[in-house]
Design brief:
single chain, 129 residues, mainly alpha, 2 domains, two-stranded antiparallel ribbon, 5 helices, 2 strands
Length: 129
């Protein structure tokens, strides 16, 4: 059992449902990346328990997690996570998509189109690039 799954179970026992959900997502991503069917099954059970004890957005996100894990379990090949995860769990929604920015030629990070200097590595963009 991975550490995130164990911590998620503990958070659920303590009735910390949002924390349990966040940790369950971490466990799901770890299980999916290693094609761990058993781990995905455990996360599905945990997501259903969170869903049953919560309401509103947390309930919806727990349902999404269970659906994601079932899909990952049934289709063990690597899946693209962007678009499947709720916005607050997908790091790319915070950084912006390539369409919303430009890629630094030195470090390959995405920065805002208007940026003159890359915030990651300090690369200076030429005017108009």
């Amino acid at each position: 059992m991975n550490a995130s799954l164990h911590a998620a179970r503990k958070a659920l026992e303590d009735a910390r449902l949002k924390r349990a959900l966040r940790l369950a997502w971490e466990a799901a991503l770890q299980s999916n990346s290693s094609n761990d069917r058993e781990g995905l099954e455990e996360v599905i059970d945990l997501a259903q328990a969170i869903r049953d004890r919560s309401q509103g957005r947390t309930r919806e996100e727990a349902s999404t997690l269970a659906t994601y894990c079932a899909s990952a379990r049934d289709n063990p090949q690597p899946t693209r996570l962007f678009g499947l995860l709720p916005g607050r769990f997908d790091d790319r929604t915070r950084r912006g998509t390539p369409e919303a920015g430009k890629v630094c030629p030195d470090c390959a990070e995405t920065v805002k189109r208007e940026a003159q200097i890359c915030r990651f590595c300090g690369h200076r963009f030429m005017p108009g690039s």
